[in-house]
Design brief:
Blueprint: H1 2-22, E1 29-38, E2 42-52, E3 60-69, E4 81-87, E5 90-96, E6 103-111, E7 122-128, E8 131-142
């Protein structure tokens, strides 16, 4: 009879140990990243903030993207400017036909989403007037 109690206690101990090892850590975190890069004709900035409780997804996030033409606005005032950027959280992009200023801005809020890697290089591709440039954005600051 005593042997059965020890076996039962050992099984409970092992189950508790396994359950503790497989549960996800739920420690709240906040990421605030500022990415920046420039090419011959363009400069790109992305501000990203995300909050979460697990190590693999955000509960909420916000992203602001700014693309600036470094030349005279007249050079792009009659063109279609297409842009896209790829990061660990996905591919995004759009176009302005024609852009109203030298600046193209986007902003979005969301829930969920993959964790943004602060050490990654985000590649921005810009196409206009038969030209194409790729801008590597790197982390400028993080909190």
């Amino acid at each position: 009879m005593i042997g059965v109690r020890y076996q039962f206690a050992a099984v409970l101990f092992i189950c508790a140990l396994l359950t503790g090892c497989t549960s996800k850590e739920t420690k709240p975190f906040v990421h605030n990243y500022h990415y920046y890069g420039e090419s011959t004709h363009w400069a790109a900035t992305m501000l990203f903030s995300g909050k979460g409780n697990t190590s693999d997804h955000y509960n909420e996030n916000q992203k602001s993207f700014l693309l600036e033409y470094k030349g005279d606005y007249e050079d792009i005032s009659h063109s279609v400017v297409r842009y896209s950027y790829k990061s660990s959280s996905g591919v995004e992009g759009g176009s302005e036909s024609p852009p109203g200023t030298r600046y193209i801005r986007t902003s979005e809020k969301g829930t969920g989403g993959e964790i943004q890697d602060k050490d990654e290089i985000i590649k921005v591709t810009v196409k206009w007037n038969g030209q194409k440039e790729i801008i590597p954005m790197k982390i400028k600051s993080s909190k």
